[in-house]
Amino acid sequence: MKYNTNSKRLALPEYGRNIQNMVDYCLTVENRDERNRCANAIISIMGNLFPHLRDVNDFKHILWDHLAVMADFKLDVDYPYEIVKKENLHQRPPRIEYSDAAIIYRHYGQMLERLIDKAAEREDGEEKEMLIYLIANQMKKSFLIWNKDSVDNQKILKDLAELSERRIVRNVGTIKFVETIDLIETPQRNTTAKKNKKNHSRKG
Fold this sequence. Notes:
Layout: H1 16-28, H2 32-49, H3 59-70, H4 110-121, H5 126-146, H6 153-163, H7 180-183, H8 187-203
């Protein structure tokens, strides 16, 4: 009896020994047309093993790359895509450069600071006030993620004035804040919401 432990190491174990054997056989086919047909048949079988990935971008391209890897890049067929090069297979991806921009309050994040800057540049009017309302309440929500115990609306407006370099200065009475309890997700609130949704569905 032949054990897999005595067989050669699989290049891509997720496809299994049978697929690897098919690839090995395809390498031995001398006629190019037959070899192409064999390769396309293997690609179809490989795709059927992972039907849930068919919506992934370049799924077929990935399969052909995998076929080349399992053949140790020795399979001479008409590839429909440009196959990954062997020397690039284990190459480290380029290092991602992280932004070194200073963030005054990290719990609000850099994106929110940019929004505040854009809002401050807008002309006075209804659209600007609506944007400030949305920003202030998002700041409150972000603050609660960082500190779930409490949040003071006056603190939010103070931070808003600071982050906008005092281009946006508002009093508590001029902005309607969402209630803190409505911004905090709790297991009890989630359970109640699910029950209400279920009861509503039954009535419908």
